[in-house]
Every structure is written in structure tokens, then in C-alpha cells.
């Protein structure tokens, strides 16, 4: 082998060695995370499993559920979960990114680090429940220790034979440039009011 | 004597009027109405939003913001209570909660800004140190490569 060829091989081997040694440092410097960014919102029944759908409830009886939020957005995030109550005909958040037009009855404000989750045990009971003909009405909801006037009326659903209300939760996220925005995530519990 | 008696009566009557007027206006002066509560909640929202924005910036710069997040979490709970009280028409509680919320996060924005500056300095120093170490390593590598080649060349010529 000629000396020039040996020189070439030596230089080539040295460059490869240098690259192998420096590569981890360069990867550490210039790599950017490309993980998928998303948030989770869930509601579970009283025994921390998927809740019965619908849950049969009656006046002044306490019920339990678990509400959870998970942050996988890659950085700390500020969320608000709005708690709303509706009957079968009232507005529900659409899949196209629009929240329900109903006023919230309660809210939770959370600050979550990346990959952190938050779960809260909820307790609620309905007060002032009355039935008249094909309608049932609820005047108050005790939610997590707070009494809220709700004044909701639900008509009898003849097909499913029940008076249905839905307690649902909307996830909103704060953006420093545009304020709070609906994060296109909602979950709910269907409640069948029994006498 | 009659003159003094009349004067005393007038004074008493004036005092009585003052007491009545005072008792009428006093609650109105210190009572919190919907506008006051709403303004206080808006202020609390702005304070929390700013505190969060600064905290997020500090975290992005590499600072440990756990302590600030604890404070924000407390403020978030209080702010929710303020909104809840406002919705139920309890404006005094709403106002009081909003003020407590502002107190809870009042120093968070400044703390976050300081943490961000510290983190940026630390990162900048880290870059500098890494750059310096790499440069020294590359120079040493080139020197060893050069001497290595000379040794290899000498050995190769001797062998061949």
C-alpha cells in the first residue's frame, strides 16, 4: 500500500472517530422535541371506573365522580374546567371546537407541568326536585360544597323513559396572546332523575 | 335659661339627624356591589394571567418553577371561589376572594422574572463552558492526530 493511501485512511479514521465522539454533544444541543402535544380530560364514576350511562339519581342523594386533566403539551399550562348542567335540548359543545353557550355553574383553575395530571373527587346532589306531568324540574345543585341555583326543566324522554340532565365539563386553555380558549375537549355524565 | 334649653334641644335634634343620616349612608359606603366585585375579579384574573405567563417563560428558560406553581394553584382555587360567589350573588365574598387571590400571586411575576434571568445566565454559561471544552478537545485531538500520523508514517516506512 502506498504511503498516500495510508495517509488517506488515517485521516478518514480520525474524522470518523471525532464525529463519533462529538455526535452525542451535538445531538444534545440541536435536538428539538417533536412529541405530539395534547391534553386529557376524563370523568369517572364513584368507584373510579367508567360511569354508568345514565346514572339514575334522586333528590338530596349525594353522588360521587372523579374529574381529571392531564397535560402533555410540552410545557406548563393553565387550564380552566367549566362545569355546566343541561337538559337534552340545551347546547352541548360541538366537535368543531365550539363550547356550549350555557353559563358555567362552577369552575376549576389548574396549573399543570408537562406530563402532570390532576384528579379531583367531585360530590354533588340535586335539591328542589319536582315532577309535574311530563316535566321534571331542579332548582338547586349542591356541587363540591357550593350551593348553586340552576332552575332546569327536563321533559320526559318517552323512548328512554326518563328525565335526563347532563352534568358536563369543558376544558379551556389559556394562551398569553388570546386569553382563554375552548380546548375542544368535553366529557359528561348523563343523569336520569327519578322521583 | 329658656334660650339654653332651646339650644340644647336643637343640638340634640341635629345630632339625632346626623346619626340617622350616618346609619343610612354608612352601609352604602362600605357595601360591595356587583361592579366592585366584578372589577376586583378582573384584576385578580389579570394578576394570575401575568403571573402564569412569566412562570411559563421562566420554565421555558430552564428554571425550576415548582414553588411558583404551588402559589398559582392556591390562587386558582381562590379565583374559582370568587367566580362562584359572584355567580351566586354574594358580591362581598367574591370581592374578598378576589383580593385574597391578588395577594396570593402578587409577587409571583417578579419572582418568575428573576428565575428566568438566572436560568438564562446559567444556560449561557453552560453554552460557553461546553463551547470552550469542545474547542480544547478538538485542538488536542488535532495535535494528537498530527503526532500520531508522524509515528505511524515512521513505523510504516520502517516496516515497508
In short:
The complex is a heterodimer of chains A (195) and B (160). Chain A is 14% helix and 54% strand.
Q: Enumerate how many helices of chain A there are, as a single number.
A: 1
| Uncertain runs of chain A | none
Q: Count every beta strand of chain A, where a strand is a DSSP E run of 2 or more residues.
A: 10
Q: Which chains share the greatest interface?
A: A-B, 31 and 32 residues
Question: The CATH topology of the largest domain in chain A, please?
Answer: Immunoglobulin-like
Overall residue-averaged pLDDT value of chain B: 89
Domain module tally of chain B: 2
CATH architecture of the largest domain in chain B: Up-down Bundle
Tally of distinct domains of chain A:
2
Keywords:
heterodimer; A: 195 residues; mainly beta; 10-stranded mixed sheet; B: 160 residues; mainly alpha; Butyryl-CoA Dehydrogenase, subunit A, domain 3; 2 domains; 0% strand
Write the layout of secondary structure elements.
The complex is a heterodimer of chains A (195) and B (160).
Chain A: H1 3-30, E1 38-44, E2 55-58, E3 63-72, E4 77-87, E5 106-112, E6 117-132, E7 135-143, E8 146-157, E9 162-175, E10 179-194
Parallel strand pairs in A: 2-10
Antiparallel strand pairs in A: 1-3, 3-6, 4-5, 4-9, 6-7, 7-8, 8-9, 9-10
Chain B: H1 2-30, H2 34-60, H3 66-87, H4 91-105, H5 108-159
Helix pairs in contact in B: 2-3, 2-4, 2-5, 3-4
3D architecture notes:
The complex is a heterodimer of chains A (195) and B (160). Chain A is mainly β and 195 residues long. Chain A folds into two domains: 31 residues; 157 residues, Immunoglobulins (Immunoglobulin-like, Sandwich), CATH 2.60.40. In chain A, a hairpin with a 2-residue loop joins strand 6 and strand 7. The longest helix of chain A has 28 residues. Chain A is rod-shaped. In chain A, 26% of the residues are buried. With 160 residues, chain B is mainly α. Chain B folds into two domains: 31 residues; 127 residues, Butyryl-CoA Dehydrogenase, subunit A, domain 3 (Up-down Bundle). Helices cover 91% and strands 0% of the residues of chain B. Chain B contains five helices and no strands. In chain B, helix 2 runs parallel beside helix 4. Chains A and B meet through helix 1, strand 5 and strand 8 of A and helix 2, helix 3 and helix 5 of B.
